[in-house]
Structure formats: structure tokens, C-alpha cells
Amino acid sequence: MYLVFFALLLGILFFLSRSLSKLISRILIHFFHSHHVVIYTLSFIFLPGVVVHEFSHLLIANMLFVATGEVEFFPEIQGNQVKMGSVAIAKTDPLRRFLIGVAPLIGGLGILLLSFAYLRASSLSWQSVLLLYIVFQVGNTMFSSSKDMEGAAGFVIGTCLVGIILQILGVPLVAWLFTFFQNPLLTSLFDSINIYLFLALGLDIFLVLLLEGVMRLSQKR
What we know:
Number of helices: 9
Mean pLDDT: 84
């Protein structure tokens, strides 16, 4: 159940983070009437998270001995799309490409765990404010883009097919996985992650409601 809850929270946070970015863009367009202002303001707001995102790709790629090239942390306008950051990654096998693609998610969750371990405070303090800022940054920038996940679908489908074949051949793969995910340490780890994702979700909901209120007030004037 903790894995189902994890996937559910992650999915809701993904769509909510997109909604928050679009809402911030709408407010900026409403006040400044400039797409360039929107792009560069969003880049400034989410810059720390973008740096962590791209550095995660870079770090995992180098750990897996995959060649990397130019790293960009600032926005680049490409036609009708905006690229907030990028890391040039050489072509590699599906497994390593998949691991490099999901690196920001793994790195983001790791940062959340470390932040809560060292910055948790029982009352309002600079630690709690910094913790909320980290949750905001990580929670809204740790998701991989479609470009990051190129080839991931093929890897996932291939892995599932291999698993099905092994199960048919009599390898008790499902039983092994069930036993593995019942490990108390793993259960405790995901319970903590789910709490932190729930906080990130609550923070985004609060910001969306706040900004929606600001947008409605500004439209009435």
C-alpha cells in the first residue's frame, strides 16, 4: 500500500506542479504582458531546483560512465517551447538512459530526506523556513521531462516482458518482489518519503489557492 500511496502522491504532485507554473505564468502575463518576462522570472524562481535537476542528470551519467557535454541552467527559447535547463548526454544503452532520465526524481527525494533529517524544527524558525523552501524547489522541479525519458517506455516494457517470461518459466519473481517490498527498512523509508511528498503537495495547494485569489482580485480592478 505504501507504494500505491507513493505513486498517487507523486502523480498528483506532478500535475499540481505544472498547474502552479502555469498559474504563475498567467499572473506575470497579466501584470507585465511580456513572454520574456515570464520566462526569465520563472527561471529565477525555480533556478535552485533546475540546478539540482540538471546536476542530478550530470552526476548519474558520469557515475555510469556515459559521456556528457554542455550544461545549461538558464532558459532557452526554442520556437514555441522553453527549455529551462539541459545537459548534453551521449547515446547509451536503455538501462543507463533510463537511470539518467529518472536521476532528478531520485536526487530530489534524497534531498528531501536529508533536509528533513537536518532541518526539522518544532516551531517557526529559519530551519523550518529553509525546509519549506527546499520542499517547494524540489517538489516542483524533480520531475523528468519527456526528453529526459526518451527510450524509457521501451525499457519498462522490455523489463515487464522479461519478468512475465521468468514467471511463466517458474521463477517466483512476484513472491521475491513481495518479500523485498515488505522489508521494514524499505517500508520505513517510503513512509517518510510519503510524508514529505504530502507536505510538498499541501504547500503547492496553498500556493495555487493563494495565487488564484491574487489573480481574481487583480481581474476585478
